[in-house]
Amino acid sequence: MATEGFVFSSEARKAYAPGTPVFVWIGDLPVGTVKSVKMSRDGGTVVLQNFEYSPAFVSPSIALRKLVFLELTAFLARNAATGFKIVYRFEHRTTDDIDGVALANARAKMLEGMGATLSSVAPRVGSQGGGHFVVDATWQCNEASLAKLHAALSATRAENAKERSATWLKSLTSKIKKGRGA
């Protein structure tokens, strides 16, 4: 399962070293960093949390944002043994313009769609103010989960390509209208 256009590395674009933060790139564009990566002593489980988008990465595309996590899973699964587990802990404090419940549910749906088992979807206990939600799930490397991951990747790549095409077409239409004085 190749990661199309994505690069996953340790700091300074060096080859990724398990258990270290994961830097995510699309070509030369820094997308973000999984800041907390904890590997179990036996190497059979990795816990990923505290993903932070790069200030240079501004994308309203939901498909592209989903693709980041699907491609990351594919990258980690590429050389994983059967039974290897990836534990995701998505935490996000939302702003007034974002529905935290809808965001948490969308993340849960994405994780289930790629074969992960949800542990919890809940408000963060002890957080001040509303809109701070946590989604916990575990993806285990096995034939069924790999098939779901592959299907989710294919569908999301197609969705992302469609969004990019629509954006390109809107941009072209706008340029044509401006050229005609419209």
Helix-strand layout with pairing:
Layout: E1 6-9, E2 22-26, E3 29-39, E4 45-53, H1 62-77, E5 85-93, H2 100-113, E6 117-123, E7 132-140, H3 143-179
Parallel strand pairs: 4-5
Antiparallel strand pairs: 1-2, 2-3, 3-4, 5-7, 6-7
Helix pairs in contact: 1-3
Q: Can you walk through the features of this model?
A:
This protein is an alpha+beta fold and 182 residues long. It has one domain. The protein contains three helices and seven strands. The chain has helices spanning 62-77, 100-113, 143-179, and strands at 6-9, 22-26, 29-39, 45-53, 85-93, 117-123, 132-140. Strands 1-2-3-4-5-7-6 form a seven-stranded mixed sheet, covered by helices on one side. Helix 1 runs antiparallel to helix 3 (143-179). The radius of gyration is 18 Å and the shape is globular. The termini are far apart. The model has no long low-confidence stretch (mean pLDDT 81).
